[in-house]
Amino acid sequence: MIEKITDPEKLRHWGGKIELYWVYTSGKAGDLFFKKLKADGKFLAAKCKKCCWIYFPPRIYCPKDFSETEYLEVSGEGRVRAFTVARLDPYEKELKKPEIYALIDIDGTNGSIIHLLGEVNAEEVSIGMRVKPVLKPKEQMLGDLTDILYFKPI
Amino acid sequence: MEVEVIKGLKFQKKQDVAIVGAGMTSFKRRLNETGRELNYYAVRQALEEAGLTIDDVEIVVLGSAPDAFDGVHMKEEYLSDGAGGFDRPYMRYFVGGGTAVFAPIAGYFHVASGLADVCLVVCEEKMSSCHPHPQSAFKYIWDFFLDRPLKPNLIWIFALEMRRYMHVNNVKHEDIALVSVKNKANALDHPCSHVAEKITVEDVLNSEPMALPVRRLDVSPPSDGAAALVMVAAHKARHLTDEPVWVTGVGWSLDTTWWTNRDLYYPRYAAESAKMAYKMAHITDPRKQIDVVEPYDPFDYKELHHLEGLGFAKKGEAPILTKEGVTQRDGDLPVCPSGGLLGVGNPISAAMGVKACEIYWQLSYRAGKRQVAKEVSTGLCQAWGDLMQISTVMIMSNKR
Which among A16, A21, A31 has the least Cβ separation from residue B32? Predict the structure, then answer.
């Protein structure tokens, strides 16, 4: 018979941690995107020079045909394609206020972004709803995705 | 008569495999580009050289070493976008540093088996993301009871191996340092180099001690980079180029990960992997039949160690070849004409750019300033990795 042990620390054991951290670069297209957002509050997309597919967020290449792309400015507004309402935190505690996560198709592009919805109740959200980004006050911007606080209905 | 059994050779090839294009990015300590962007640069260059577009690619092999470097778990998924990895079969292969030659081996069996006629092989590593140092990730590859309590690191393990090699073969550090001097000088001619420089044996011997006998200039740097290769079936190669380079043999082998069960002075895993590749490529005397070699050289002594394991020199005699200039770019057996990991840089799996890609460029006479002086028809590249006990070998020829 195999002895039943429910607490692994009852066995001879050795604790360990993987102590690493990372410094990520946002890359060529990422740099331009976030710098533009921080400096001007504007959004960049990139259009494939061959198939004209418009990527949002922008990329330096078209992953479908490996052609170069060119940058263009877009409004950042869009439509909700799908959404979910998160009610529990990672420790399964109820959130004070449910968080609405949406997949948003960005106007004038073939791309989309996942972000929070704000200034709206979960019951009022619908697929196809028009939304626009709400940015942090300029002096608080970091040049990353959290510079967009959330998207709100237009 | 006793028939020698060579493991891993039950395979019947359906079609011959040629390499028709290669590409690589600069190797640098830190590149701003994301791993996806690096892949794109390398892939685009390889496709252009092959005269193909991404639509022609039927299957994609990605090689990348630990996720801990890029800091993206299951990074092959993240990287697929820049590697042409969707809308077609895509698979990551990973044997640590050995991936630099194992990824092309995987590409080879995808085509040789008849599964695909055009295979794109992409290798990427972005080591600079990992902190406090890329080396820190290696702390966690050891046995957690027997090794980790002593806080080992790779340099320490290599120092034991280098010491053992020097002791058993009566080799001096100055003889080993010649490898670093040669490779860093060769790398001056490589447009992608990270640490190319003109140095002397004294510079190596006086460089910062790390874990003696290993000193700073005995070691390759951690780099960021990507590389790509296009491998095609014979009937495709005919239409694409007059100078295809054929893969004539592949081999790989692992030794035990128990340090205590290995005598570190001789790389048995390299010998076993070479045996498999030599049998497939009908090579009986590598020193005579192979014209140019790119053995894995993350440390200067490793080039010597591997040359002996691969049968280019008797045990303890690779330093003599080096001293006599045989392994120089204009020598009789050019070794690491690219500048290798010691000179061009060491982005683990993306070292494919100075191993498999370099042999392809040498055999297709596309190596430019790095082209070796002698006439070449057959070359060998080799990589080494996992827990320092795997060797991967590929033999190529410009004659079918």
Answer: A31
